[in-house]
Every structure is written in structure tokens, then in C-alpha cells.
Write a structure and sequence with these properties.
Low-confidence stretches: 1-5, 17-48
Helix content: over 70%
Strand content: under 5%
Shape: rod-shaped
Number of domains: 2
Distance between the termini: 51 Å
CATH class of the largest domain: Mainly Alpha
Number of strands: 0
Length: 234
């Protein structure tokens, strides 16, 4: 009995401080499930971070704005500066920017090309640059100053996302704990010599307790997910 209790205590410490078993299971399911589907637990807990592709687009977009501002400050023409800045930035899909490079080299409609190549998520910089280009063309304002402002806004937005992610670490940890507590309770009961599965599935009272527990756990996960979404949208 003492050995079983010590084992369960060590297991609880490992579950609390070690790698998240829910995340490990989700990664295993990610490799096995068809593309386009999404695990229910991942939707409920909101544990998934923004996709690496979106993060890569945003990082490359900041590099693009900084490089473009530097090229314009060096006195290069706007089209050439844009081509050099796009070539220097590490975009996840460089081939998608070929129409933009062609428009910049041939003197085409750069604002329309920026909007055309902007991804739905992570393309904020392209939409901002398109607006800067139109304002500069229409009013004659300095493009370099406008691009600097776009770069500053992107850095502020990036810092804000990091701050929000840090503030949401607590609710997400709570969601992980809620997801793992039922399994931990079953293990502890089995280690103490009880028969939790026999009670839960072998009697009406056990089935009622199981249904009530699953409903409460699901409500907790849903509410945590709701709080996380509200914080992210605000």
C-alpha cells in the first residue's frame, strides 16, 4: 500500500511539472488524423498556439517593413527597395510573392499586388503597406516615414500578443489540469485497491456520477476556452 501511494504521488508530481500528457496525446493524434480535422480537446481548451505559418508570416512581415524602410532611407527607388526588401525577408512561401516582385519591377499597381499576396492571417503588414503606398502616391507623403509607422505598429502588436499569451498561461494551465484530473483520480482510486471502473459502469449510481462528472468537466473546459477567446479578441 505504501509503495502504491508513493508511486501515485510521484506520478502526480510528474504530471504537474513534467511534459503535458494531453499535448503529447494531441501530437500523436495529429500525426494519425486526416488533415483538415481538429481534435475536440484542442478546440475546447484553446491550447494550440497560433500556427507556425502565421507566426512566420508576421515575423517576415516585420523584417520586410524594416528592410523596406532601410532601403528607402538609403535613397533607393520605391520599387527597387521593395524588391530588395522582399528578397531579404524569410517568408514561409516565397513563390506567393512573385506577383508582387513582378509589379514592383515593372512599375505595376503595387498596392493591389500587396493586397493580392497578403494571407488572410498574418498579412497585416501587406495591407498596411498597401495603404501607405496609396497615401504616398496620392498626397506625396514620404513613404519611408509611413513604412516606419507600420513597422512600429507591427512591433507593438507583436508585443501585445506576447503579453496576452503570458496572461493566458494560467487559464490554459487550468484547462490542462481539468483535462487530466479525472484520469488521475481513477489511477489513485485503483492504486488504493478500489474498483472505480466497475462502480462507474456497473451501477446506475456510477453511471450517473460518470455523466455528471463528464458534464462538469466539459463545462469547465468550455468556460476556460470562452475566457481565452474573449481575452484574445479584446
Amino acid at each position: 500500500m505504501t509503495g502504491a501511494v508513493m508511486f501515485l504521488a510521484a506520478l502526480a508530481v510528474w504530471l504537474w511539472t513534467g511534459p503535458d500528457p494531453g499535448t503529447a496525446r494531441l501530437r500523436w493524434m495529429e500525426r494519425r488524423r486526416p488533415r483538415g480535422s481538429r481534435p475536440l480537446l484542442q478546440r475546447l481548451t484553446g491550447l494550440s498556439r497560433p500556427s507556425r505559418r502565421v507566426a512566420a508570416w508576421r515575423t517576415a512581415s516585420m523584417e520586410l517593413c524594416q528592410g523596406l524602410a532601410a532601403e528607402l532611407a538609403a535613397g533607393r527607388p520605391a520599387g527597387e527597395a521593395l524588391v530588395r526588401a522582399v528578397s531579404a525577408a524569410d517568408f514561409p512561401d516565397p513563390t506567393a510573392l512573385r506577383p508582387l516582385i513582378a509589379a514592383a519591377r515593372d512599375g505595376g499597381d503595387i498596392p493591389s499586388a500587396l493586397l493580392a499576396v497578403a494571407p488572410e492571417r498574418g498579412g497585416e503588414a501587406f495591407r498596411g503597406l498597401a495603404a501607405c503606398w496609396r497615401v504616398s502616391t496620392t498626397t506625396g507623403a514620404g513613404l519611408s516615414v509611413l513604412v516606419d509607422r507600420v513597422a512600429d505598429s507591427l512591433r507593438e502588436a507583436h508585443a501585445h500578443r506576447q503579453d496576452v499569451a503570458a496572461q493566458l498561461a494560467g487559464p490554459r494551465a487550468t484547462a490542462r489540469l481539468l483535462a487530466g484530473l479525472p484520469a488521475l483520480g481513477l489511477l489513485m482510486a485503483a492504486g488504493l485497491g478500489m474498483s472505480p471502473l466497475g462502480f462507474l459502469f456497473g451501477s446506475p449510481a456510477g453511471v450517473a456520477c460518470l455523466a455528471c462528472g463528464l458534464a462538469l468537466d466539459g463545462c469547465g473546459l468550455w468556460w476556460t476556452h470562452h475566457l481565452v477567446l474573449r481575452a484574445q479578441r479584446s
